[in-house]
């Protein structure tokens, strides 16, 4: 079968020479190609989103369960005769942590990751997350009323918040973790907010131990 070849014009030989010269230059050791993109830059170019890691997913999934327990026990304040100051604290915890649970579930869902229910009865990976109350501690708190509930709630919520801070420290210590902007900001906010609340709760405990119940 005959094959068709294009007819060369007078300018064509010059063009071929130029192409050949470029090809030769590309093969010389002195030629330098484009700098490869970093994984983060490549991810942004592909989808506009920096990469996330298994450590990020573990942190978010565990924090959903962790927050769910805080919402559960803070919700007991009205039925357990909590003082006004503890009730106000519990209301803030319920509102803030429910909103954060919704954010975390959305973050996981948008990335096609499994989304755990906000159920404190299901330990993450078969283990309680740091600071979470044991079944015995939950039962003790549930039995308490009035000033005793206030004391136990503050004691156990300090433990709970310290666990969340530990989770943040673990995340930040993982190589490559928390590079996602939303996760970095969320984790930093958790660290700052819960440290501030720990200070407040310790002051409330000190006031109670000094002989007076928080109003």
How would you portray this structure in words?
The chain is an all-alpha fold. Helices cover 65% and strands 0% of the residues. It is built from seven helices and no strands. The chain is elongated and about 55 Å long. 27% of the residues are buried.
Considering the chains and any ligands shown, give keywords for the structure.
215 residues, mainly alpha
Blueprint (SSEs and pairs):
Layout: H1 12-27, H2 39-47, H3 54-74, H4 84-110, H5 135-143, H6 146-173, H7 181-209
For the record, the CATH architecture stands as: Up-down Bundle
**Main beta-sheet annotation:** none
Query: Tell me, what's the shape?
Result: elongated
Count of separate DSSP helical elements: 7
Name the assembly state. single chain
The proportion of strand residues reads under 5%
Give the low-confidence spans.
1-46
Structural class: mainly alpha
Q: Number of domains in the coordinates?
A: 1
Taking the alpha carbons of the first and last residues, their distance comes to 100 Å
CATH topology: Ferritin
How large, in whole angstroms, is the Cα Rg? 29 Å
Averaged pLDDT? 82
Q: Report the helical percentage.
A: 55-70%
> Can you say what the CATH homologous superfamily is?
Ferritin, core subunit, four-helix bundle
Quick synopsis:
The protein has 7 helices and no strands. With 215 residues, it is an all-alpha fold.
């Amino acid at each position: 079968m005959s094959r068709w070849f294009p007819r060369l014009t007078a300018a064509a030989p010059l063009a071929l020479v130029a192409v050949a010269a470029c090809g030769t230059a590309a093969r010389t050791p002195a030629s330098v190609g484009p700098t490869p993109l970093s994984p983060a830059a490549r991810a942004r170019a592909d989808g506009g989103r920096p990469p996330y890691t298994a450590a990020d997913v573990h942190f978010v999934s565990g924090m959903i369960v962790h927050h769910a327990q805080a919402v559960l026990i803070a919700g007991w304040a009205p039925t357990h005769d909590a003082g006004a100051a503890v009730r106000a604290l519990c209301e803030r915890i319920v509102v803030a942590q429910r909103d954060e649970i919704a954010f975390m579930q959305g973050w996981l869902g948008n990335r096609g990751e499994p989304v755990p229910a906000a159920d404190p009865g299901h330990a993450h990976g078969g283990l309680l997350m740091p600071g979470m109350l044991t079944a015995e501690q939950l039962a003790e708190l549930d039995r308490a009323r009035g000033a005793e509930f206030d004391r136990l709630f503050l004691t156990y919520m300090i433990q709970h918040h310290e666990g969340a801070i530990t989770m943040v420290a673990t995340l930040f210590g993982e190589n490559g973790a928390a590079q996602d902007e939303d996760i970095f900001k969320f984790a930093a906010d958790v660290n700052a907010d819960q440290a501030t609340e720990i200070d407040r709760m310790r002051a409330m405990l000190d006031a109670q131990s000094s002989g007076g119940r928080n109003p």
